[in-house]
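yo

u said u wanted the structure for the complex thing, so here. seqs first:
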Amino acid sequence: MSKIGLRELARELGVSISTVSKSLRHSHEISADTREKVLSKARELGYHPNPYAGFLRHHKSKTIALIVPELTNNFFIQAISGAESVARERDYHILVYNTNDDTAQEVGILGHLQNGRVDGVIMSLARTTTGSEHMSQLMESGIPIVFFDRICHEIETAKVTTNDFASSFNATEHLIQRGCRDIAFLMLSDTLSIDNKRKQGYLEALLKHDITLPPDRIVFCSGDEDANRNRIRHLLDQPIRPDGIFGSVEKLALSSYYVCRELGLHIPSDIRILSFANLRTAPLLNPSLTAITQPAYEMGARAATVLFKYLEKKRPIIQNENIILRSELVVRESTGG
Amino acid sequence: MSKIGLRELARELGVSISTVSKSLRHSHEISADTREKVLSKARELGYHPNPYAGFLRHHKSKTIALIVPELTNNFFIQAISGAESVARERDYHILVYNTNDDTAQEVGILGHLQNGRVDGVIMSLARTTTGSEHMSQLMESGIPIVFFDRICHEIETAKVTTNDFASSFNATEHLIQRGCRDIAFLMLSDTLSIDNKRKQGYLEALLKHDITLPPDRIVFCSGDEDANRNRIRHLLDQPIRPDGIFGSVEKLALSSYYVCRELGLHIPSDIRILSFANLRTAPLLNPSLTAITQPAYEMGARAATVLFKYLEKKRPIIQNENIILRSELVVRESTGG
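structre next:
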């Protein structure tokens, strides 16, 4: 028996090819009755859509969106670069969006993408994002999301992160081994998955070494450079000040460097500093910065690989999966060499 | 008299609205005879197309491409960020492509974009690009290009650059005023428009101060970090070595810092260094880097503004225009403070 296509179905049913096609696509132009007849005949005759036609219909944009909370940030740029290189190999195109760490912008961008402009999304959450409805809606409209770094736990999909807890735990122990007993932790937000894990690593390392600190040693920062410097100045410009600073993101380490200069504090003899950072210039800073460096390029590449694998296989859902890559602690002068 | 639209034209001519519409779009479905009749009647009655309909027809992707030679480069990231912010305001989307400084990749990307995926292109050339045919072809297919930074002189369009010649001239004079008499110039390529202007600024400043240098003081570098360090090592590890280095791009200044450390050369007492750079960490380097900083964000925003103005007005061609913004020389420790 010859292969059953749209033409054969239409002939069997005595309707136009267009009616069959629209019924199979659940078009609103077709009555429920007609659609049911077409679908039932399709099942009866063992109709399978032409995969190429399906590809054209479902994944025709060959474009994905990469949504990041900041563009002028080495971590995100390296991640974009990794995703871009994988996209190039697969002939995919990448739309880049910057949420400016603002949930309203993030919601707006995802809303925009529901119209089929992209086949899938790779994203890292804005600092202020707590709800997940805008992401669920996009997923439900058939556009899969893969998260990296700042992931959303509530959404079932693939999530690419690093060993944030262990990196943070080890980095805190490194400061303790160098003699620090009063370590401040600078972070962006308690609601961010990664910041939370990093804070937890810091707290558990303190606990292991029986160090108890006042709550003001955890400093919540923002996207505003001046406000962050004020917070750090407030922390350091007091009689009993920390002897160590742990920055959860690179810009907080840089702000700390500036404030130490202002206050005449010498790094590392007065205060030791380390941070998560993907700065190419970390070894050239004065003093060179001890950094926990995430494999940002690999994270972007991995997120893209997972997404493309799904798009090309047209699987119904992306499996819930935690892909965890390893960060590296590189010890330099800012913690005593 | 009421405004002349497609409907009025069709009635006057006694043909269908569709025939009028297709004739105005030069559709091949319409005979030359009919088209001529429609066009002549349109002229006679003073018909002007509805801008919104025209917009929908001609620029329906609402997407532009941003093509850069490197992604992990602060200048290009800031430029992308500027373009992205303007795009967001206008509801445009940005596809980002990285040529990896490779002409073959650049040609491939432009070829891909001829299918109408984008309404326009903002680009900065790959280091190795000399011909302009791939760009002419894209322009001829109706997709305008606006250049920034590494522009193509042969193509008539808007070009956003900085005052590269004057910046370079002034920076060279700054080194001379600080006592340098043997200044090396590190550059990427003689065929790059900006490198050429920067080299010219350097050479004319030397001439003004009657300084003659051997030709090996101009060092051609590449995208390969190790190879660049070798070239710089070769330059500095000889009995008579330069007392100043001028880097035409930031990565060459960083390579110079590393080589000076290796060779035990002190900056600035043994050798003074300055460079074009958009590094956020320039003030925190050891020593802090004297930098010519381009207004990268504004350049990206300006290029996007020009392109969108054109796309929204549906002008037939973008005017040939040189938009030149001002860079800033920030003097720091690497040239003696």
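Residues 50-57 of chain A have pLDDT under 50 and may be disordered. The two ends of chain A are 76 Å apart (CA to CA).
cya
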